[in-house]
Amino acid sequence: MSNLHNPTGTLLNDEDIVSFLEKVPSYVKVVLDEAYIEFLEKDPLDSLKIYKEFSNVIILRTLSKAYGLVGVRVGYGIARSSIIDEFKFVIGPFDLNSYAQNLAVRVIKEKSM
Ligand SMILES: *Cc1c(COP(=O)(O)O)cnc(C)c1O
């Protein structure tokens, strides 16, 4: 579920997302794709609260858009360790190189100053 949605720009609120998650069986993983969340003037979402309530939720964010690192493809995710363990087998070929990691740390530090 992409929120803000690309390319329509529609935004689901917390109640919409919770209502959806209540209908999804807990063994089904649900990704909250928040690639454009930094473009909201005020963050109306509390996805961490939703994440704490629903153990099948994975939150994904990227530095490609708001941080201008589209060519570097750096992002981060928040999920239960049991879910992360299921994805560890793909880390080898898709792991970030040291250039991407250092660039990510640098832009995050610059934005937070
Ligand atoms: C850009 C984008 C991403 C992530 O892009 P990466 O460059 O792979 O980090 C994810 N979801 C949506 C909807 C996007 O527009």
What labels would you give this structure?
113 residues, alpha+beta, 3 strands, globular, binds pyridoxal-5'-phosphate, pyridoxal phosphate, transaminase activity, Aminotrans_II_pyridoxalP_BS, Aminotransferase class I/II-fold pyridoxal phosphate-dependent enzyme
- Kindly provide the radius of gyration, computed on alpha-carbon positions and rounded to a whole number of angstroms: 15 Å
Q: Say which molecules are bound, naming each kind only once.
A: pyridoxal-5'-phosphate
Classify the beta-strand content into a percent band. 5-15%
Q: What is the number of E strands? A: 3
Biggest sheet strand line-up: 1-2-3
Give helix % range.
25-40%
Low-confidence stretches: none
Structural category: alpha+beta
Mean pLDDT: 90
Spatial shape: globular
Main beta-sheet annotation = 3 strands, mixed
Order of helices and strands, N to C?
HEHEEHHH
Termini separation comes to: 31 Å
Number of helices: 5
